[in-house]
Amino acid sequence: MKILFGAWILLAAWTVAPAAAADLELSIAPQFNGAPLVFDSLVQRTAAGQTISITRLDAMLSDIALRRTDGIWIGQSDWFACMSAREGKTNFILAGIPLGTYDRLRFHIGLAPQINHGDAAQWPAGHPLNPGVNGLYWGWSREYVFLALEGHWQDGGKQNGFSYHLATDRALMTVEVPMALDLTSSRRLQLAMDVGKIFSAPRQIELTDASDTTHSRPNDALALQLKENVESAFSSAVESPCLSPARTASLPRPVMASDATPYRLAFSQFFPQPNLPGDNPLTSEGVALGSKLFFDGRLSADNSESCATCHRPRRAFSQPQRFSRGVDGEIGTRHAMQLENLAWKNSFFWDGRAKTLREQVLQPIQNPLEMHESLIRVVAKVSSDKNYARLFKNAFGSSEVTPDHIARALEQFLLVQVSCDAKFDRVVNGRAEFSEEEKRGFTLFNTEYDPYHGQFGADCFHCHGGPLFQSQNFANNGLDAAFQDSGRSKVTKRAGDLGKFAVPSLRNVALTGPYMHDGRFRTLEEAIEHYCTGVQRSATLDPNLAKHPDGGVPLSQSDKKALAAFLRTLTDERFAAR
C-alpha cells in the first residue's frame, strides 16, 4: 500500500519480523570544505574569501527513508531526531530495518506542517520534539526552527556575528544522497555535512551587515538561498563495519516509601513535559521532608544558615545581595541564582557543573565559602532530631538519614517550585490584558533588531524565548572584553566557552535583582541598559549579540521603559507573597 506523507511516497514501511531486521546507527560528520569542522575558531574560509567561525549547528531531522537496490523505498514517517553538532549529538538509531542492500538515503531537515504547527507541549520528556530536548522551538510563533547555524565573521579588525535560523513550512528541506549499504554485514552509516557548501553552492553567500541574519520571514530571499545550499551540503553516505551490540543500562530503582502519596506536579499547558528523575518519584512526603531541610540551619557548620538564607522564597528563591556571605564570613564570587522551574533544566550552577539537582544540592553544604559543613556532621545532626526519623520513613520507607536521602528530598522540594501564574500567563489564557506599554514591551521582546529588513526590536527572544523565558544554553552576553571569571570553560576546558554562563529564566525577574552572574547591575533598568549601550565584544560573544551595533541594540527611552514594564508582567505573585 502506498502511504502519502508530505512530499514523499513511501512504498513500504520497515515494520517486519525482528529476525529479518537490524538496527542501523546513522552518524552525521560536520565538515568545512572537506576537512573536519572546527567549532568556535576563526579558521574557516568561505568561497567568498571571508574568515568565519561556527559556534552552533543544530537541526531537526524527520521522515527517514532508504531505497533498496530493487528501487523500493522503505521508511518511517514517524522518525524524528535533533542534531546538535557542537555538543557531539550527531548519532541516531534507525531501528528494525529489513535486512538487505540499499543504494540511497533520504530525509527531511525540518518537520511536516501537521507536526510543525501541532502542540509542542504534547511530546513526552526525552522525545526529540520536546522543546526542552531540541532547543529549536519558537515558543510564541508556535513553530520549530529547522536548522540553526550561528557564528562569527571577520570584518576588517572587527568580529561580527551571524545567525541563520531556517524555519516555516516553506523552508522544509529534503536531503537525498547515494550510498552503498549491505545491512547483512554493516550496522553503521556515516553521512558528511559540509558547512562550507552552505556558503557556496549552488549560490555563494557573502556575509555583510545586510546578510548576517535570517528568520525565514516571507519574501526572505536569503532563507530560500540557504535552504537550497543546505540541501546540497550532504555527500555520499559511507558504511562502516559492524560493532558488538551495545549493552542496555539497567534503570535505577525508585527510592520511596511503599505507601507514599504521589505528588501531582501542576504547570502551564504551554510548558513542555519535564524530564523528572525516574528513580526519585515526587511524593507529598518527599516534598514535605525537602521543605523542612531547605529551611533548617543545621545543614551549616554553625547552624546559622539554611538553604533559604541565600535563596529566599519571596525573591523567587534568589538573594537581594550581590554576593552571599558564608558561615565563616567568607564572601562568594557569584550571585545566588533563583530556584524556580528547575524541572525544566538539565544542568545547574552558573557554569553548569552539576547535571542533576541531586548533585547540586549537596555542594553548597560542603563549600567552604558557603555552609562549610561535612555531610557526616549533617547526617549526625539531622539524625538526632526524632521528628526527622518519622519524616524520612514516610518519604523513603526507612528512618535512616543518609546524604542520598537528604539530596533526594531537597531535589523533590525544588522540583515542585513552579512559576506559571504571572500576569503574562493570565494574558495568554485570556484572563487579563496588557496595558499599551506592556504590549509594546512584549512586541520589542519578541522582535529582532534587523534594520536592513525593517525590524527594530530588542531581540530578547533568542536567549529567553518560549513560555519558560530561558534556554538550556550557556552564553557570553558581553559583560566584559576580558574575563576574571572563566565561566563555563572551567568545566568544559573549551576555549569557546570562555566567559559563558547559564542563561537564567526571566520569570520573576523583577524579584531577582541584582542581575547577572556577578550581580553587577542593581536594577532591572540597569540590566536593560547593558544590552543597549554596554555590550563588550570578545571572541566568544554570543553571535546574536555580535551581529548588533557596537554597544548593543539602540532602544529609545520609551522603548526601554516599555520593555521593563513587560518584564514586570512575568512576576508570579504567589512567589512575591511568601
Task: For the structure shown, list the relevant keywords.
578 residues, alpha+beta, Cytochrome Bc1 Complex, Chain D, domain 2, 3 domains, ten-stranded mixed β-sheet, five-stranded mixed β-sheet, 18 helices, 21 strands, globular, disordered N terminus
Task: Provide a descriptive summary of the structure in words.
The chain is of the alpha+beta class and 578 residues long. It folds into three domains: 3-241, no CATH class; 284-415, Cytochrome c-like domain (Cytochrome Bc1 Complex, Chain D, domain 2), CATH 1.10.760; 423-576, Cytochrome Bc1 Complex, Chain D, domain 2. The protein is 24% helix and 22% strand. The longest helix has 13 residues, at 403-415. It is globular. The termini are far apart. The model is unreliable at 1-11 and 242-246 (pLDDT under 50).
Topology (elements, then pairings):
Elements: E1 3-5, E2 8-10, E3 12-13, E4 21-32, E5 35-36, E6 44-45, E7 51-68, E8 73-84, E9 91-98, E10 101-109, H1 113-116, H2 131-134, E11 137-138, E12 143-155, E13 158-167, E14 173-182, E15 186-194, H3 195-198, E16 213-214, H4 221-231, E17 238-241, H5 284-294, H6 307-310, H7 357-366, H8 375-383, H9 386-396, H10 403-415, H11 423-428, H12 436-445, E18 449-450, E19 455-456, H13 461-464, E20 474-475, H14 489-492, E21 501-502, H15 524-534, H16 543-546, H17 557-568, H18 573-576
Parallel strand pairs: 3-8, 4-15, 13-16
Antiparallel strand pairs: 1-2, 4-5, 4-9, 6-7, 7-8, 7-10, 7-12, 10-14, 11-12, 12-13, 15-17, 18-19, 20-21
Helix pairs in contact: 5-9, 5-10, 7-10, 12-17, 15-17
